[in-house]
Amino acid sequence: MILWTVPLALAHRPGLSYARIADDELEITVAAPELASVVRPGEDLQLSRLLIADAVLRDTTLVVAGTPCAYGDPTVAPVEGDGIALTVPTECPAGPRLYTAGFLARMEPGHRHYVEAEGKPVAVLDQSSASVEVSGTAHASEVALRFGKLGVEHIWTGYDHLLFLFALLLAARSLRAMLLIVTGFTLAHSITLSAAALGWVHLPPAWVELAIAASIVIVGVENFWRPTLRRRAAMTFALGLVHGFGFASMLVDLGLPRAQLVTALVCFNGGVELGQGAVVVVLLPLLLRLRAWPNWERRAVPALSALVALTGAVWFLERV
C-alpha cells in the first residue's frame, strides 16, 4: 500500500494512512513527513524502528472481547513515494476484533485512516471516529454509502481537478458550451476511472499527477486563443481521460471489495459526479452573470487564465 501525503499545492489526498489487518499481523502505512519527529530525512529506518513503532502503536490496539491482542516484534520498510510501512505480528483470541487507531490523535486535523481486513475495505477513520469492529464483509449498503462519500470527498479536495474544470468553463461563451464541456469531462474521466480501478489499464501515479498539472497549464494557455467549441470539447475529452486516472488512484490504493465490486465502483464514481455537480451548479450561474461585464472577456478571462496556467506550472514543478 502507498501513502500519499500531499501539501496544499499537490491538490488532494492530504493526510492519508492505511491499516491492513490480517489474522496474524497488523500493517500500518504512514508518510515519512508525518513521522518527522522520529525519522530524520535520509536516516536508516532501522535505526528509528522502535521510535516509529512507539509513535504508531502507542494507543493503537486490537481487542477481542475485552482482551488485547499481543504484539510481536515490529519491522519497518519504505514503500513507494515517501511511505513507511510498520508491520507487527499479532496474537488474538478468536472472535471479532475492535481496532482503535490511537495514533490519529497525534495527526493533523483532517487526516483519514483507511482500514482493510482480509483484502476487503472496512472503514475510513479519523480523529473523531478512531475505532472500528472487524468482523467480516461489509453489507452492500455500507459499501455504497462509504464509497459514495469517498467520491464526494475526493472531488471536493481534488483542487487540481476543480481548477482544470474552472479553466475549461472560463472561456465558454454560452450555457450550451458549458454543459457540453462538463458532459465531455464527466464521460471521459468515468471511462478511465473504471478501467484503472478494475485493473484493465495502469499508469504510474507520478506520471498521472504530472499529466494532470500539465493539463491545467495547457487549458489556461489555450484560453488566450479562445478555442472553438468543437476544439474545446475534443480537448476536454482527451484531457478528461487523464484526470480519470487521478480519480482512480484512491480506489487503486484502497482496493475494491470483490464481493461488492460493481457497487463500490459505481458509487465512488457517482460520488465524484455528485460532488462535481454541486460545484458546477454554483459555478455556472456565476460565470454566466460575469459574462455580462463589459471587460470580462477582454481583461478578466486572460488574467484568470494566466493565473490558472501559473498555478498548474507550479504544481507541475513540485511534482517533478
In short:
The protein is α+β, with helices and mostly antiparallel strands. It has helices at 49-57, 140-156, 159-170, 175-197, 205-222, 229-254, 261-290, 296-319; strands spanning 16-21, 25-31, 61-64, 67-68, 70-71, 75-78, 83-91, 97-100, 112-117, 120-125, 131-134. It has two domains: 8-136, no CATH class; 145-319, no CATH class.
Features:
alpha+beta, 11 strands, 320 residues, four-stranded antiparallel sheet, disordered N terminus
Question: What's the topology here?
Answer:
Elements: E1 16-21, E2 25-31, H1 49-57, E3 61-64, E4 67-68, E5 70-71, E6 75-78, E7 83-91, E8 97-100, E9 112-117, E10 120-125, E11 131-134, H2 140-156, H3 159-170, H4 175-197, H5 205-222, H6 229-254, H7 261-290, H8 296-319
Parallel strand pairs: 1-9
Antiparallel strand pairs: 1-2, 2-7, 3-4, 3-8, 5-7, 6-7, 8-11, 9-10
Helix pairs in contact: 2-7, 3-5, 3-7, 3-8, 4-6, 4-7, 5-6, 5-8
Specify the number of helices: 8
Question: What is the helical fraction, as a range of percent?
Answer: 40-55%
Low-confidence stretches: 1-13
Query: What is the typical, i.e. mean, pLDDT?
Result: 84
Give the CA-CA distance, first to last residue: 22 Å
The amount of beta strand, in percent, is 15-25%
Major sheet size, sense and barrel closure: 7 strands, mixed
Oligomer: single chain
User: How many domains make up the 3D coordinates?
Assistant: 2
Number of strands: 11
Shape: elongated
- The helix/strand series, from N terminus to C terminus, equals EEHEEEEEEEEEHHHHHHH
Provide the gyration radius in Å. Answer: 22 Å
Structural class: alpha+beta
